[in-house]
Please model this.
Amino acid sequence: MNNLLSSDTAGFPMSTKVQEFLDLLQYPEVQEALQSIVHMTIHETPIYKRLDLIEEHLGANDLYCVGRDIDYERGVTDDEREPLRKIPDQIAVIHNLIQTPVKEVVMVSGNVTEIRARLLREKIDTVSPRQGKKFILSTEVQQFLLFEVPEEQRTTEKGARVAAGDVIKKAIEMFPESLQIGKTKGKGLRFIELIEGLRDM
Model:
């Protein structure tokens, strides 16, 4: 097998050419040029385009990513996108909503954000404690506004992140005696929680 690769059609030893190529790779400018060629080649392959279509189908965009935000980890972007829920998890949420008996909701006056804030306050009372606390992550607030509130109060996929931030802020303004904002360690995701003295009520 080595004999077959020992020379090319011009009669030059293949091993010498390979060695020359490896020697050139010691130079940063050559490495950069090679990386650009590889990057361009990958982007032009059908596989890469197919991956783009799959991400679009799953809902990945400027606000959401699949799995984790690799662009953020590489320093390409300044703001970390939030990972989408896995499809089985999304199905489980929808299934639970279908199975949950519909309760009559008495709406009070106020703008959309105020109404959503009141609904969020009621929701926090019903969640099971985690690590001794009753709280809802900002990503969970988005899902709440997308699927759990009455249809006329729901937000859209595109506006869910902004709506969740507005509702959390409004809920803190409306219920400062019972709610507070915190951040998780590590990724620093925001959450809204019930103040400690009210958790067992």
